[in-house]
Amino acid sequence: MPVRARKARLRSVQRETESAAVEGDRAAVEDVVRTLLRHMGEDPEREGLKRTPARVVQALEFLSRGYREDPKVAINGAVFAEDEYQEIILCKDLDFYSLCEHHLLPFFGKAHVAYLPNRRIIGLSKLARLVEIYARRLQVQERLTTQIAQTLMEELEPLGAAVVLEAEHLCMRMRGVEKQNSFVTTSAMLGVFRTHFETRQEFMNLLRSAAK
Ligand SMILES: [Zn+2]
Fold this sequence. Notes:
Elements: H1 3-39, H2 52-63, H3 71-75, E1 79-81, E2 89-100, E3 106-116, E4 120-122, H4 124-135, E5 138-139, H5 141-156, E6 160-169, H6 170-173, E7 184-191, H7 192-195, H8 197-209
Parallel strand pairs: 2-5
Antiparallel strand pairs: 1-4, 2-3, 3-6, 6-7
The chain binds zinc ion (ZN).
């Protein structure tokens, strides 16, 4: 067998082995969901619940797909040189959905992402991608906020980055902890947004004026 064919064969065997491992994993996790259903007082074998373990595993894989994506790779190739524009760029009201790592219940809301460029700008859709990748992991809102801002600082090297997240947490609302309708706001101010009061103020004004 020629070398190339042998390598291709090896790769396909590897792929089969990997997907078998994933399948085996999935069956084991479905068992866990059945145990969970029993623990909740249900009968996992009843008609309506028969396919539930498979659906739950699929849903959780979707909701945690951010672990299998590298935000730095996602940004790569969308950074452009720009000498003219030197003002704050703000991307407002990016919807996000995440899972709190304490209860595996959703928290969701709006992300506002801003930066002050330093001769480099980034495609606007990539800001949304960045939020999405970090949100599709188990999170606490504070860390999610910081990770978005820090990645921007590292990959784009702007003069500063500012991120504000407003979210409601179902683990608070559904469990009756704290007031219903409570929103949690977190922010991360890096670079000039941290050191320059005026820059931070300008960002806050932009955020307010862009509202509604
Ligand atoms: Zn929680």
